[in-house]
Amino acid sequence: MTPCTEQDGVLERRTAQEFLVVEPWGPHAVRVRARAAQGLDDPALPGALDGPPPGAAPTVSVHPDGTARIVNGRLTVEAGADGRLRFLHTATGRELLAEKHPYTWYPSARVHAPLGEGRYRLAQSFEAYPGERLHGLGQHLHGRLDQKGLVVDLVQGNTVAAIPFLHSSRGYGLLWNNPAVGRVELGADATRWVADEARRIDYWITAGDTPAEIMACYADATGHPPLIPDWASGFWQSKLRYRTQDELLAVAREYKERRLPLSVIVCDFFHWTRMGDWDFDPTDWPDPGAMVEELGALGVRLAVSVWPTVEPTSTNYQALHDAGHLVADSRGGVLTFPWPARGHGADHQPTAYLDPSVPAARRHLWEQLRAHYHALGVTAFWLDACEPDLPPEPAARAVYGAGSGAEVGNLYGVWQARAVAEGLREAGDERPFSLTRSAWAGSQRYGASLWSGDIAPTFASLAQQIPAGLNVAMSGIPWWNTDIGGFQGGDPADPHYQELLVRWFQYGTFSPVMRLHGDRAPNQAFTAEITGGPNEVWSYGEQAYPILREHLRLRERLRPYLHELAEQAHREGAPVMRPLFFGFPDDARAWDVEDQFLLGPDVLVAPVTEAGSRARPVYLPGRARWTDTATGEVHRGGVELAGVPAPLERIPVFVREGAAVATAFLP
Question: For a pLDDT cut of 70, what percent of the chain falls above it?
């Protein structure tokens, strides 16, 4: 028996195998850290927990039999004489979660397998519970809202954002505070978190009586999202690439002439001369200041694409190289991967990567963005390919200032968003907002709006987005979006694709961010000269255009409601797009619905995700009364409506009776 000790409200336990620390971390939460006994004292390791939130009032007791107990608000922790931890609901005594020994003979629920140089392959095991539903973990396109029974890799990639936070239907939330590449196994007999290369086990757990309480504690621990700028809630227009200043301005002018709402237009990749210039190419964009000024007069913001890749011939390469601000290769030198380059046709050039784990490198990036974009009035940045976009083999060789790619690489997108947020805040903008293709725990504090990457233009892909977005919401990222219509293709002249685009546009109208984007036909080879086909709302034929136009106007009417939700997200960490169970946790059926969602507390959305479908069932949750926005008919909650009409002109949308947002749906 090895007794626990208590020091200033923190439990410690030392054995020949490990050093364990259990520390209150916020009013209803604790942080658990464990390292191998022979390991070095904990350095300042990267993660999502900067410091404990205020308000904890724990009661700690250590007993002669080697056990100990912490009571901290709704959460009680019991430490056994063997070091195993149990987490209980304080008021009821019900077990929320308990650590589990992975093998009958193994002395701990925690495994530290040495790799050398103070690094370990780590594993942490917990009990599994029948009927438990598990949500969060970021963005994955497996099509499941409840992820019980899955093995989920914790590694970033295009269309995958690994955020190691789990929300449980049992009333707890758990953050695996480790940015290492690994996985989580959500088995029937155990839950196991694995880090392939790390220095210590580190997790945070909170208790809540509702999903809202859990997400509020998570925001307190990992950071609250800033208020979004008002312009971000409107419609974003984009295509694969507007190639010139004249082309982009012509599109913005056309929206104005047609009296169509437009908030943001995107200047996407290869608007630069060389990757890593972070500047406009003067041939295609001769007067970007005048462009931004004209867009402003039209009521439109310009968003610019920012990639982390740096060509050897770019204006910034040598300074970054000499300062050690490029990602290194474990084999020696700078890590490179071939990307298209302007002036090289279809040839790909070896391209390096900015190392944003280094504060001075982040500062260098922002200085370029400030001088070449922000000084012109640009405050919207599109942080593309910030996983970073590397195949597994070179990604495994990456060495950052903060550690190896295997140990810290999942943080890349956080670092990129941080560079922009800190720069904007220094410039006096307290509402930083960036589109980003990658996120990790805590990204929300930097105004990161995650999108789902280069997804397929199919109905099956559209169906996958619904649970993917809801799991992002339950991972603490309130602002999420998709490429409306999918990214990888789509022919605007094809009637079948036009139907998909309409259905996706309807879904996007009720997404936290509404953005039209994609590489439309006629597609071209992936070179620096590509532009993609037309992708404006008038590009999809006479039947689709009036439907898209009316949904643009509906989005405008919804914006005051979205701004209310932004306030709630900022204050309480509540997601904008929500699973039904978030608003109705006492409704058992609400936990089963994966193809509908709530936009805030008062709007229920039932997307259409099958070609040719003109009706669908809709479940109305809780004891609320719901008004059909198409007919005005009022229905009681707790029932499923079979065959709710869904003509091509609309999808089923219901509003809670008496909600002010109902006026947005009036003709």
Answer: 97
> Which pair of structure tokens corresponds to residue 481?
């979006």
User: Tokens for 587?
Assistant: 């409704």
- Summarize the confidence of residues 415-419 as an average pLDDT: 98
- Pick the catalytic residue: 454, 483, 536, 628? 454
DSSP secondary structure letter of residue 103: S
Closest of 293, 241, 251, 295 to residue 272, by C-alpha:
241
The Cα 584–Cα 50 span in angstroms is: 32
Give catalytic status of residue 387 as yes or no.
yes
Q: In terms of pTM, does the model score above 0.85?
A: yes
Residue 338: in which H helix or E strand, if any? Answer: strand 337-340
* CA neighbor of 153 nearest in space, from 392, 469, 450: 392
How far apart are the two ends of the chain, measured CA to CA in Å? 73
Structure tokens of 339? 């990307």
**Residue 349, token pair as written in the block:** 């050039």
Could you tell me the two tokens for 568? 């709630």
Cα–Cα dist 201/178, whole Å = 7
For range 278-305, the mean pLDDT: 98
CA distance 506 to 551: 7
Catalytic residue, from 268, 277, 279, 387: name it.
387
Contacts of 356 (CB under 8 A, 6+ apart): 308, 362, 365, 412, 415, 416, 418, 419
Respond yes or no: is residue 127 known to be catalytic: no
Catalytic residue among 220, 284, 384, 536: 384
Tokens, residue 439: 């996120």
Residues in the chain: 667
367: annotated active-site residue: no
In angstroms, what CA-CA distances link 275 with 203, 305, 315? 38, 11, 9
Give kind and range of the element (H or E) at residue 61: strand 59-62
d(CA 437, CA 431): 19
Token reading at 15: 């054995």
Quick: pLDDT tens for 92-148: 999 999 999 987 777 789 999 999 999 999 999 999 999 999 999 999 999 999 999
